[in-house]
TrEMBL record, chain A:
CDD domains per record: CheA_reg, HATPase_CheA-like, HPT
Enzyme class of the recorded protein, top EC level: transferase
SUPFAM superfamilies xref list: ATPase domain of HSP90 chaperone/DNA topoisomerase II/histidine kinase (SSF55874), CheW-like (SSF50341), Histidine-containing phosphotransfer domain, HPT domain (SSF47226), Homodimeric domain of signal transducing histidine kinase (SSF47384)
CheW-like domain mapped to chain residues: 522-657
Annotated ranges, domain Histidine kinase: 269-520
Presence of the UniProt keyword Phosphoprotein in the record: yes
Enzyme Commission code: 2.7.13.3
Keyword vocabulary terms for this entry: ATP-binding, Chemotaxis, Kinase, Nucleotide-binding, Phosphoprotein, Transferase, Two-component regulatory system
Modified residue annotations for Phosphohistidine: 48
Gene of this entry: cheA
Alphabetized SMART domains for the sequence: CheW (SM00260), H-kinase_dim (SM01231), HATPase_c (SM00387), HPT (SM00073)
Name of protein: Chemotaxis protein CheA
Catalysed reactions listed for this entry: ATP + protein L-histidine = ADP + protein N-phospho-L-histidine
Domain HPt: from-to ranges: 2-105
Automatic annotation (TrEMBL), chain B:
Keywords (A to Z) from UniProt: Cytoplasm
CheW-like domain mapped to chain residues: 4-144
Species in which this protein is naturally found: Dyella acidisoli
The keyword Ribonucleoprotein appears for this protein: no
Main subcellular location of this protein, as a coarse class: cytoplasm
Pfam families: CheW (PF01584)
Location(s) in or outside the cell: Cytoplasm
SMART domains: CheW
Keyword Transmembrane assigned: no
Protein name: Chemotaxis protein CheW
Length: 661, 161
């Protein structure tokens, strides 16, 4: 089939179109703030490419919807119509609807739904497309009542006969527009479920000029194996929203395996690609060229070498080292994408949220070009959304309250990304009311997190909202919501090897600072010797290392050891015991204790000595073996041997589990 | 013959074992490995195979034999099963055999001296007997794998909650 050959371009089309939609959205939002004609042009161009692409690649529903949007934009472009809020609103909804269509297209579901049809008509109405024919068409739809309600309830054994209800539904969908509602009432509980039987039934609303015979033909083969009623559709009321949701249900229910497989295929496709700027690739090619030249130069030494050329050899080796390092940096750079792709979703979010809440918010985005590892980028979106939502919802005050406080009615929300040292810093700051100190302290007292609110610094109070369990529904109202799910935000960031800090000044606003590592693939670590073995401890989790006198360590009943560190007692984990290393130093005073921290907990790791610092390329142990407790991965040392990387968070969890046991 | 399978034969404590040659990725001299904590005694550790971290098991220890010194003929056979690679340390490699499907006989129950779970069958070449290894079962018995998977799943649930 020809569709197979064209399907290979779908992915590129989806990617480009989604980018186009992003561009449309940001241009629309800019237009909302009073933009110029060039913006209209760029929106028009994006819509036009999507229309052309979707028609070419066989998505007529998408093309039809975009066509209407394009017509409307055309009128704006020609100056026949002034752009106003309602048009922008309509176009934004079109963008959302198209996104939904792309999602469905990627998982192979039918594209059109009631929402898109509805939107198409609204767009057409706005265009003034109500030429007699079109009007008749729109009017004809409800009036003709040319539709059927089909109750289709397969007998339990129908699947065994090789009949797939999903196929029947697809055939029906080919006849006209379908609204399907799955009836789950006969689905037994999980323990009684026989997956080889069909427990689902469907109520199907089919719109379109279809004869009853045509429907009967679809069900011809299963007539004896199902309960089937076909009634004419009397009132073609707009389909209720929940029913629309259920369109996907048959796929998930009956064709469970098929549906899941398809989704899995779609999502694995998603994982695959990175778009790389052409100059990065050119840079790589240059570097590889240099490397080849250096290699050729070094190759000469193989032919004839004498001591007089030693200096040249050293020079060549130094060059080789330099080129290898830059090549490494460039290759890592391919994974680096600008954080703008995450920031881009915020103008829309801020606009929608502030409208809903009746607040006025100005969003400042700074440093969109700061680059981050793709993996980090994908996972930082949700925590950021959470923080932005919190800032607007609870941080910024209502306009009248702001005026009363002598502030500008329009609140400012600022997102800023920049490099600091080897890290990326993302700051989310608002000029709202700041944290409600009294309420947080009261809540913390009530939860028993602190003993008294006296003398707590603002930072310490801010820390409290990151405590797990601090976010309850009660807090949301008491505390104007600050702290909702903050522990989740922190955990997500910590999982990426980063950290979140909060700074708040009453009446002046709140700043969240997220610090992230540049990349997950390379970590800075200290090599620690234990017995004859070598382990890498990630630098980010090291607080400091101390040499303890023998009497500084207290043994606790049950075999634990504690030592005093800056006024607190920390447990000691002896790495040689944990990892079963032979010939390690046993006496505390002979070795070193490395104080490490993760999830806000500190412990001491007892090792023989620290050997040196190095960058470690993280390799997976699980790829060929399995997970090992206390080990997060492995890396390859300069001599080609393997060293294991200590999983500090994992060790701390093990330690606390041991305490609990 | 279409049903002929080639086996790489390796020596281990005066016995000859066969490994399906399609599963063999490479043969390399014995090199020291990095020990992994909390691993079964027969897993010697991991080695660096051109950037991939590959676990190595000692077939002697796997079969409950004692390990003598690693010497010049000791080799690590890198095997790929289901996309996973692992190394198997044996005394020496010896031969490549063509074995017809009907020449493979089932393993008789030999009591407890040798764990027959890891054997697919045996065949004879002249007066030599060759035990054919089931490579899939060498690294981890099925139940251990399932237990690991279950524990991982439990860990994930905790992480989400």
């Amino acid at each position: 089939m020809s569709s197979i050959s064209i399907a290979q371009f779908h992915k590129v089309f989806f990617e480009e179109s989604l980018e186009g939609l992003d561009a449309m959205e940001s241009a629309l939002l800019a237009l909302d703030d009073g933009g110029d004609a060039e913006l209209v042009h760029s929106i028009f161009r994006a819509a036009h490419s999507i229309k052309g692409g979707s028609a070419t690649f066989g998505f007529p529903d998408m093309a039809a919807l975009t066509h209407e949007a394009e017509s409307l934009l055309d009128q704006v472009r020609d100056g026949r119509r002034a752009i106003d809020k309602s048009i922008i609103e309509l176009m934004l909804r079109t963008v959302d609807c198209l996104r939904g269509m792309f999602d469905r297209a990627q998982s192979g579901q039918p594209l059109a739904d009631a929402d898109s049809e509805n939107l198409k008509q609204q767009l057409a109405a706005a265009v003034g497309h109500n030429t007699p024919a079109a009007a008749a068409k729109i009017a004809a739809k409800p009036a003709a009542s040319s539709g059927w309600i089909i109750h289709f309830r397969p007998h339990a054994g129908m699947l065994a006969g090789g009949n797939d209800p999903l196929r029947l539904l697809r055939e029906l969908a080919a006849l006209g527009q379908l609204v399907v509602e799955a009836q789950l009432d006969r689905v037994p509980t999980l323990d009684a479920l026989d997956p080889s039987e069909c427990h689902l039934g469907w109520r199907i609303e089919l719109t379109g000029a279809v004869s009853q015979d045509a429907i009967k033909t679809v069900f011809e083969w299963v007539e004896d194996e199902c309960d089937l009623t076909i009634e004419p559709l009397v009132v073609a009321a707009p389909p209720p929203a929940p029913a629309v949701e259920a369109v996907a249900a048959p796929a998930a229910g009956a064709g469970g395996a098929a549906g899941t497989a398809r989704n899995a295929a779609a999502s694995s496709n998603d994982a695959g690609s990175v778009r790389v700027a052409i100059d990065k690739i050119d840079g790589l090619i240059d570097l590889v060229g240099e490397l080849v030249i250096t290699q050729a130069m070094l190759d000469q030494f193989r032919e004839d070498f004498d001591a007089s050329r030693l200096a040249l050899l050293q020079h060549g080796l130094a060059q080789l080292a330099r080129h290898t390092r830059s090549l490494q940096e460039s290759v890592m750079g391919i994974r680096m994408l600008p954080i703008g792709s995450v920031f881009n979703r915020f103008p829309r979010l801020v606009r929608d949220l502030s409208q809903k809440l009746g607040k006025q918010v100005k969003l400042d985005l700074v440093g969109e070009h700061t680059e981050l590892d793709k993996t980090v980028l994908e996972k930082i979106g949700d925590p950021l959304v959470h923080l932005v939502r919190n800032a607007i919802d609870h941080g910024l005050e209502m306009p009248d309250k702001r005026r009363a406080a002598g502030k500008n009615e329009v609140g400012t929300l600022r997102l800023e990304a920049f490099h600091r040292g080897g890290s990326i810093v993302v700051e989310i700051s608002d000029d709202g009311a700041g944290l409600n100190r009294e309420a947080i302290v009261a809540k913390a007292l009530q939860k028993g997190l602190i003993k008294s609110g006296e003398g707590l610094s603002d930072e310490a109070v801010g820390e409290l909202i990151f405590q797990p369990g601090f976010s309850t529904a009660a807090v949301t109202t008491d505390l104007s919501g600050r702290g909702v799910g903050m522990d989740v935000v922190r955990r997500n960031v910590v999982d990426l090897g980063g950290n979140v800090a909060i700074k708040s000044r009453a009446g002046q606003g709140t700043t969240f600072t997220i610090t992230l590592p540049l990349t997950l693939a390379i970590i800075d670590g200290l090599r620690a010797a234990v017995g004859g073995e070598c382990y890498i401890v990630p630098l980010v989790s090291i607080v400091e290392s101390v040499q303890l006198p023998a009497d500084a360590v207290r043994s606790v009943t049950g075999g634990g050891e504690l030592f005093r560190f800056r006024g607190e007692y920390l447990p000691i984990v002896r790495l040689h015991q944990q990892f079963g290393c032979a010939d390690a130093r046993q006496q505390i005073e002979e070795g070193l204790v490395i104080v490490v921290e993760a999830d806000g907990t500190q412990i001491g790791l007892f090792v023989d000595e620290l050997v040196g610092q190095q960058q470690a390329v993280v390799k997976s142990l699980e790829a060929n073996y399995r997970r090992v407790d206390g080990i997060s991965g492995a890396t390859i040392l300069a001599d080609g041997s393997v060293a294991l990387i200590v999983d500090v968070a994992g060790l701390i969890r093990l330690q606390s589990r041991r305490k609990a046991a | 013959m279409s049903d002929q399978v080639q086996y790489l034969t390796v020596n281990l404590a005066h016995e000859e074992y066969g490994v399906d040659i399609l599963a063999v990725r490479e043969i390399r001299g014995w090199t020291p490995v990095t020990r992994i904590p909390q691993s079964p005694h027969y897993v010697l550790g991991v080695l660096n195979l051109r950037g991939a971290i590959v676990p190595v098991i000692d077939l002697r220890l796997r079969f409950g034999l004692t390990r003598e010194d690693y010497n010049a003929t000791t080799v690590t056979v890198i095997i790929t099963v289901a996309g996973r690679q692992f190394g198997v340390v044996v005394d020496a490699v010896s031969d490549v055999l063509d074995v017809a499907g009907d020449a493979i006989r089932p393993v008789p129950d030999m009591g407890t001296t040798v764990d027959t779970e890891y054997l697919k069958g045996l065949t004879s070449v002249g007066d030599r007997m060759v035990l054919l290894l089931d490579a899939d079962k060498l690294l981890q018995p099925q139940d251990a794998q399932m237990l690991d998977a279950a524990l991982d799943a439990a860990g994930n649930v905790k992480a989400v909650a």
